[in-house]
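Appendix B. Chain record.
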Amino acid sequence: MKKLFILFSIVITALFVSNTAQAAAWKVSRSFWTEQDEKAYSDFVERICDSKYGNLNKFIRDPKVNPFYGEEDKKLNLSPDCADLPYLIRAYVAYKLRLPFSYVSEISSKGGGDERYSKGNKPMQFRDQDYFSTPQQLFYQVTLVNSGYYRMGVDSETSDHYPIKINKKNLTPGTIYYDPDGHVALVAKVLDNGRIRLIDAHPDKSISKPWFGSKFSRGNKKNGGGFKKWRQIRYTSDGKIVRTQNHNLKDYSASDQYVNSFSVGGKSGLGYYDYVRLSMANSNSRSDPLQEFVFMMQDIYEDIRYRALAVEVAIQKGCHLKPHPGKLPYNIYGTDGIWEELSTPSRDARLKVAFREFYDTTRQMVLNTERYDPRMAKALAYNFLLKYDELASKMCITYVNSVGRKIMLNFADVNYRLFDLSFDPYHSIEYRWGAKGQELASANDGETKRKFYALEKRLRNQLERLYGCPTPLSMGPDTPVSVDVRGWLYSYIQGNKIDRNIIAFNKETIYEQQEPSEPSETTEVAVVADKPSETKEDQTQIAMAAKPPEPTVENNIVVAKTLVELPNSNSNQPAPQIETKPEKKAEETTIAPAITNDLNQNTNQIQIAKAQIENKESQVENKKTEEKIDMPTPKTNVEEKGSANPIPEFWNSLLIKGDQIAATIGNSNNYSSSR
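Structure tokens predicted for this chain:
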């Protein structure tokens, strides 16, 4: 009897072990990731970036682009938001290659509160592929992580990720960037000039492909922000996961990304973003200012397009048709529910930072060049200005207003109305795109929504994203910072007084977690029941957009069309007027959008002769002594014997172009003004 019992126990144990093995999401074929496996992971991330898809499910189900495609992909569902994306991609590749996968499934923090912005986050529990019965079950579970799972000190030995030293060997596709403002992205491509392309996901499950820059906040040692890699793991014979400790990770660095000033390639005193760019650039890579200018415009334009998609999702889900709740979340940047999914305060803040960086970098390139030769600086400003007008008219997005009319906005339009764009998902699409005047006439926002739009002005002017603290309507400046690149360039060319101060914005401020004394949503105003705006029965005229079109050459500027509502014949109300901007003073008038042979067809005569430009060079020299220029002296890689100011080859060609432009302007009598 005893022998029978022992035999029965052995059989039951064997069946249990067998069932346990079968219950794993997948059977591991290797106990660790090899360099070839890591390369396959990197290539997979890069393929996502190179594809046309903005949705992970569509990508994995296309056998032409997915290198791991199989019939099972037709049924798999991968729907990440920002924090889930790295986990889902890593888990998917591990499944396809039958490699071990482990992740932190639970964390703790000091003082509790929102894990995404809390302090002292530490791993508490772990899970791996053996815990789950199917791959899809594992994929679902990893979507429960949030950005707080990346928010761990650089000395953590058990976290899923670790900070790296920045260099071309370490920072490869698949590397994670953790933005401590609560956003996560994956490195997807690194260009020869050091530019880094990322992929990131959003609450609406879409994937975008932004470029790395100051719109992604920098971290510190405590929150572990910055570039990180997946910690190497090993699957043991008894089914356990062993995590490699930091001192055994050859690319680990607890300090490289967290110093106050950086040095690379003989250049010192660099900021973090310049350090990353120069560290990743090829040694023979040279910077062309005009190419940099074009790149920044293209990068911002991509951000504008991604915002358009996000706003369209909110409109399609009908959030703008719902009554306004009459209050904002406790913190508009870090929340949940409808606001997290459909509002855009964080996305808009990153867009504003990108425009400000564009403004600052453009000015810095011109002012640095001025240290060589004011004439070259003026030539560079001319080239920037012409390129801005050339590209701005082509970089367009379109939205459909509340009465079904298509409204087209170009880059310059968005630049002009940047701080009027509403982040509030309860607003109409007109407010979401900062419409005014006749363009706004088609909106049907009720009184409460209109009141909130006015009250949210200061929050719209805010560049910094603040977390772990209340964000009341009183937060933010009354007047936004300048982002008028075009206006600055023209003023510089004219010799007018210009802003020479370059201000670095710290875009991350994390406060200690505070429990609000009021309910979690405390920003309130008196609520007036929303009613559709009074509509006119006759909507009979389509007119040009809120601001008057600028005189252009060869239709360089695309002017948005918008609906103008006219009162019916029995109404005593005056017809809405097309909003116009106040005229600028003569000395602030901006230069023509383009220089072509038919300049004489333009209006607004401003005579600019080459002699006038040369006369103002002396004024620039005087201003250099009167106004402090807090800029590093630029260095050149080209040496000319006997020259006190060696001039790189690019600048010589630029100077010739500048002379040609000046001569063209000097021979023309008619120019258009700009906003």
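Further analysis of this model is presented in Appendix C.
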